[in-house]
UniProtKB/TrEMBL annotation:
<dbReference type="Pfam" id="PF16868">
    <property type="entry name" value="NMT1_3"/>
</dbReference>
<protein>
    <submittedName>
        <fullName>TAXI family TRAP transporter solute-binding subunit</fullName>
    </submittedName>
</protein>
<dbReference type="InterPro" id="IPR011852">
    <property type="entry name" value="TRAP_TAXI"/>
</dbReference>
Amino acid sequence: MGKWGRWGLGFVVLASIGIAIASITKLIYDQNRIYTIRLATGGPTGEYYAFGQAIAQVTETNEPKIRVEVMESAGSNQNMDDINTHTADFALVQNDTPVLNNVRAVAQLYPEMFHLIAANDANIRTLTDLKGKRIALMPEGSGSYNLFWPLTEHYGLTKYDFQFNSMSPTDAYDALQAGNVDAVFRIIGLGNSSISKLLANNRFQLVPIDQIGALQLTQPYLKSTVIPKGSYDGGSPIPSKDLPVVAVSSLLIANVNVNPDVVKAITRILYEHRNELVSINPRTANIQSPEASQNLGFPLHEGAHAYYTQDNPSFLVTYAEPIGLLLSISILLCSSLWQGRQWLISNQKDRADRYNLEILDLIEKIEQAQDFDELQNLRQQLLEILRKVVVDLDIDRISPESFQSFTFPWEVANTAIRHQEIILSGRSKPVPQPNSSNLV
């Protein structure tokens, strides 16, 4: 075996060892890695934040390698932006929020209902009665704030038809109780405790919101629903009858680059640990079915899709890393056996090396050739070497790789012959004689 052949074998063995070590290291790292994910929710007193806390607690119990950091936020629009820029990994948003490029769906959670709470003495019985009134809205950028405007526009109102102020939910409720506003508008899950406390005061009532069919012509993500009789107080009851309202769905979304295994684990928490979630936050009882989560109008995250479409992962997916490790070890073993065989026959000189040495000697003779006959003889020798090499290649006495290494010096020798022919041709040309007319 030649020097370069031994170097090549050594490189293959070292590369195989490197692959095996890298596979083992990655396997150990992945088995022990702790993933910290950032979940953007909403204000600290809102339903999104409480929902996020429930997910964090149940995830910590059932997926010890995943830590959920619950983040406060201004609302759906900010959450969508944070997911798009990967400032957050997961987020809760309303399904009317415009979807951005790097955002993928994970699950449809629960319906959020439009709540218009008005003071009894304000005489607000429908949305058209908001004209000339004072309205408390949620903070700008929130889903509640953004959806209020297309809703009132449908009823023929503009922002100049009433007074409005955006404020936190707590400030809005305080303003209504103090008589500083006539109504509060908020989109929130059914049964919110703050709403219950507000409605316990007989001074306030829920206002119905209908015309859902017409609303869906411009806002197709809206759904028709009802606030069931007695939802906020069964004794009174509040409301006194089923109240027609409009709803949107809350969604769990993720950045497209979040690890699919992490997304799959979080999706599994939502559906397979529902009882644990409900014990922390009853709102989680309304999480939609997996079938509903697969038809959200924008792409599912790869990890969520894997959960929804595969009851059990394939053998290759489950054991990809052990298979990679086994393959690397197999390559290492085969390479070692192959090297051992090559070392056993290393005492036989590589024929291609001998041919290369013959050609190098021939090149030296070509450069020293003094006439065309000598050069022709060297050409015949060069062709004879080529013939022998081709025969040896055909009967496997040299390898295709050795043949490739032979072709380069052979081409050099062939070029040297042509070059020497040019030199000898120049020498054989007669020297021009000076014209006598040019002699002085």
